[in-house]
Amino acid sequence: MVISMMRMGRYSDLLIAVAAVAALSITATPVPARAQACPAPVPDHIPAAPPPPLNLGTIKDLLLEYHQKYYDIDVAAVFDSAQKYIEQNATQSKRPALVLDIDETSLTNWPNLLADNFGFVANGSCDVLPAGPCGFNQWILKGSAKAIEPARKLFELAKAKGVAVIFITARPDSQRDITILNLDHAGFDGWTELRTRPDRDDLLTVQEFKTAERTKVEAEGYTIIADVGDQISDLEGEHSGCHFKVPNPFYLIR
Question: Among 3.40.50.1000, 3.40.50.10790, 3.30.70.890, 2.40.50.140, what is the CATH number of 51-108+147-254?
Answer without folding.
Answer: 3.40.50.1000
